[in-house]
Amino acid sequence: MLDWIVVGIGDITTKRVIPAIQAEPRSRLYGIVTRNPAKAKPYPVERVWTDLGEALRDPAPGAVYVATPVALHAPQTISALRAGKHVLCEKPVAMNYAQAAEMVRVAREVSRILGIAYYRRMYPKLQRARELLAAGIAGRPVLAEINCHDWFQDEDGRRSWLLDPRLSGGGPLYDIASHRIDVLNFLFGRPVKVSGHLANVVHQSPVEDAATVLIDYESGVRGVVDVRWHSRIPRDEFRIVGTEGEMLLTPLTGPKLVYPGGVEELPSHKNLHYPCVENFVSAVLDGAHLYASGESSIWTDWVTERVMRA
Question: What does DSSP say about strands 191-199 and 210-217: parallel, antiparallel, or unpaired?
Answer without folding.
Answer: antiparallel
